[in-house]
Amino acid sequence: MSTVAAPRTPARPARPARRGINWEKWGWMYMRISGVVLVVLIFGHLFVNLMIGHGVKAIDFAFVAGKLANPFWQVWDTLMLWLALIHGANGMRTITNDYVSSVAWGRVLRGAIAFAAIALIVLGTLVIYTFDPCPNVPADQISLLPSFCRA
Amino acid sequence: MSKVITPPVSQMKASRGGTLYRGREGMWSWVLHRITGVAIFFFLLVHILDTALVRAYNAVISSYKNPIMGLGELGLVGAIMFHALNGLRIILIDFWSKGVKYQRVMFWVVVGVWVVLFAGFAPRHLINVFSEVGH
Question: Tell me, what CATH number does A90's domain have?
Fold first, then answer.
């Protein structure tokens, strides 16, 4: 004999409490910890690139190459890259969980978010540590390089 | 059969916004946090790719110096400022014992600090963007 389910019966039986690491809790903690650090890193980034000197007007290859040749900015940019992309990707995951009800679409979107984040972390880290601030360029383009390349 | 219970119209009008959350500072700060967060995420994807194209960097960056991009950057910096300040507000709500009590006040502090920061940044940035025009 079938009976009507009691009110507020969950669609699926509640899972027993899981042991081990609570990833959702650490994700929640990560958003707050990385958030505070990112406020400092990004405000510093914006201040140095857009406020000091001639701001956006002064940004060119020489400016970026000069910054990325300096270990201080290499560490700054690496931290910013990793913390911001993981923070952003986790935020997009939260939004996907909130609005996408289809299980298949949820998987596809979360997969795309993870792929984009990992690909850009790898690409960005490679750029920071492998690029040459003084590439071999034709003589008419030497003026575009940072000043220390001409010394 | 369940019956939806709605308060009488007179009562709804009396309590502005209907509830503590909907239509109030709590809801709008959440909406803005989501919208600015998504916008910043998509900008970030493009921003890492553009810097990765260092070889063609001067060509890529020169496109950032046209006035339309300049205005876009202004919007982006405004979005980042709000997301950062409201993020600090969220942290205070979560960890400060009086955070929940002062969440409304803190929202208006966020708006106030945002106005001050934006007023400091916008003229400087617009001068840099528009003085580039015609060069």
Answer: 1.20.1300.10
Q: Taking an 8 Å Cβ-Cβ cutoff, which residues of chain A contact chain B?
A: 32, 35-36, 38-39, 42-43, 46, 50-51, 54-57, 59-61, 64-65, 81, 84-85, 88-89, 91-92, 95, 116, 120, 123-124, 127, 131, 135, 144
Q: Cβ of B131 under 8 Å from any chain A Cβ?
A: yes
The answer to whether the CB atoms of A42 and B90 lie below 8 A apart is: no
Return the CATH fold of B17-132.
3 helical TM bundles of succinate and fumarate reductases (1.20.1300)
Q: Does A42 map to a domain?
A: yes
Full domain range(s) for residue A117 = 26-134
Where do the domains of chain B lie? 17-132
How large a percentage of chain A has pLDDT more than 90?
Answer: 54
Interface confidence: ipTM more than 0.85: no
Distance CA B126, CA B72 (A): 11
| A78 belongs to a structural domain | yes
Q: Which residue of B has its CA nearest to A40?
A: B84
Residue A2 has pLDDT above 70, yes or no: no
Q: Is A6 domain-assigned?
A: no
What percent of chain B has pLDDT above 70? 74
pLDDT digits (tens, 9 = 90+) for B110-125: 999 999 999 999 999 8
- What is the number of domains present in chain A? 1
Residue A20, domain member (yes or no): no
